[in-house]
TrEMBL record:
<feature type="domain" description="Ubiquitin 3 binding protein But2 C-terminal">
    <location>
        <begin position="248"/>
        <end position="386"/>
    </location>
</feature>
<feature type="compositionally biased region" description="Basic and acidic residues">
    <location>
        <begin position="121"/>
        <end position="189"/>
    </location>
</feature>
<feature type="compositionally biased region" description="Basic and acidic residues">
    <location>
        <begin position="225"/>
        <end position="234"/>
    </location>
</feature>
<feature type="domain" description="Cell wall mannoprotein PIR1-like C-terminal">
    <location>
        <begin position="23"/>
        <end position="96"/>
    </location>
</feature>
<dbReference type="InterPro" id="IPR018620">
    <property type="entry name" value="Ubiquitin3-bd_protein_But2_C"/>
</dbReference>
<dbReference type="Pfam" id="PF09792">
    <property type="entry name" value="But2"/>
</dbReference>
<feature type="region of interest" description="Disordered">
    <location>
        <begin position="116"/>
        <end position="241"/>
    </location>
</feature>
<dbReference type="Pfam" id="PF22799">
    <property type="entry name" value="PIR1-like_C"/>
</dbReference>
<protein>
    <submittedName>
        <fullName>Putative gpi anchored cell wall protein</fullName>
    </submittedName>
</protein>
<dbReference type="InterPro" id="IPR054508">
    <property type="entry name" value="PIR1-like_C"/>
</dbReference>
Length: 396
């Protein structure tokens, strides 16, 4: 369970299914499918969407569908859960089935039992009746279709609609009106998907919360010149940027502190900059980016636009940054690279996005560092869903 309330595949979590078919996590956070990408998450202060059910064999369904997907978060080799695959290369996302493993089988609805979801796992509990055979067949059907690549330039809405139609055709029998399963936890078997390369893609285009597909006026090289730090993308009710195109999530964030010069903080989910703290961002660059231009873009939504992230900004918001050498989890303030290539500076304001620097893409690892001015403290949770916040690398 991530600290911001998003469920991932790090391990088992406790969930509760109420009599209205609402799903809540162990903190009583309501579970929903957030954003255009329909990410499964349970958020503080939110009511669960209705439509969740557990079949007799323990299959978790939403509106009759057992099909879910996992896609990499870019942090700690973790995976988030989605109702449909994110755009990306073959093997970027993996289809999974969610299974409850600590409920008692019954033909009567129970509203107070606590369930455990074996995320991305299958529990075999043996043949007991025809209902369970039907559920097992629904499970098998959901895994017969292999994932085929969804072109990131295609219409995501039509992909989503066809996916739901397929769900309804193959999975409609899996919802057994909340029959409670009895599943031996020892029989839960993890799948063995090979984690794909953590390649994600973006360009600094405005986004619309109500539109599931990227807007046609997305800013990219063909339609709009991308400007340097002093130029920003002004926004009001839209995100400063939509992640689209060829982009990279930082695969290592290392905030080092001058007040603890020999302390190695390891990788972090947060970026932090102040007069004593600077953060290094490693980006994995695939060989296909060779010959392209790589730019680092900082997207900074308004606090009200964030659903699964947050930030704290004090002072002027003045920052410095630049390309530097690669860092590791063992990097400390004393061992961190000192030299900066093409140092830039700027003042960050919520509701805008900034291009900090641009250089030739070098396959391997490219690193950018940010540090704060003397009166700046800025900390944010790096997150691309649903309104991206933080530092990203764009290949053009």
């Amino acid at each position: 369970m991530l600290r911001i309330g998003q469920s991932n595949l790090e391990g088992e979590s406790q969930f509760h299914l109420d009599e209205n078919h609402g799903l809540y996590d162990e903190n009583r956070f309501g579970c929903i499918l957030a954003g255009w990408e329909e990410q499964f998450q349970c958020d503080h202060g939110k009511s669960s969407w209705n439509g969740w059910s557990i079949g007799f064999e323990g299959l978790i369904t939403f509106q009759g569908s057992v099909r879910f997907w996992t896609c990499p978060t870019g942090d700690h080799e973790g995976y988030n859960i989605y109702k449909r695959p994110l755009p990306g290369p073959d093997g970027y996302c993996h289809q999974v089935t969610l299974v409850a493993n600590s409920c008692h089988a019954t033909h009567h609805r129970e509203s107070s039992s606590t369930k455990t979801i074996c995320q991305g796992r299958k529990c075999d509990t043996g043949d007991r009746d025809s209902d369970r055979d039907s559920d097992r067949e629904s499970y098998r059907e959901s895994h017969r279709e292999s994932y085929h690549k969804s072109d990131h330039k295609s219409d995501h809405k039509s992909d989503h609609e066809s996916d739901r139609e397929s769900d309804r055709e193959s999975d409609h029998e899996s919802d057994r009106d909340s029959h409670m399963p009895s599943c031996n936890e020892d029989r839960c078997r993890k799948p063995v998907p090979t984690p794909p390369s953590h390649r994600v893609v973006c360009n600094g285009a405005p986004c619309r919360e109500s539109v599931p597909t990227p807007p046609s006026h997305a800013v990219h090289r063909k339609t709009h010149e991308t400007h340097e730090t002093h130029e920003t993308h002004k926004t009001h009710n839209t995100c400063p940027g939509r992640l689209r195109g060829d982009w990279e999530f930082p695969h290592l964030i290392v905030p080092v502190d001058a007040s603890k010069p020999d302390f190695a903080p390891g990788t972090s989910l947060f970026g932090t900059v102040s007069k004593t703290v600077k953060s290094y961002f490693n980006f994995d660059i695939p060989s296909k980016y060779a010959g392209k231009s790589c730019a680092v873009v900082f997207m900074f939504p308004q606090l009200s636009q964030l659903e699964t992230s947050s930030f704290e900004l004090k002072g002027s918001g003045h920052i410095f940054g630049g390309w530097t050498k690669e860092v590791s989890k063992e990097t400390t303030f004393n061992t961190a690279p000192e030299g900066l290539i093409s140092k830039v500076s700027g003042t960050l304001r919520p509701g805008e996005s900034y291009v900090f620097g641009r250089t030739q893409c070098r396959p391997g690892v490219m690193t950018f560092v940010m540090e704060g001015g003397s009166d700046t403290y800025f900390k944010w949770f790096q997150d691309f869903n649903p309104c991206p916040i933080g530092l990203y690398l764009i290949a053009e």
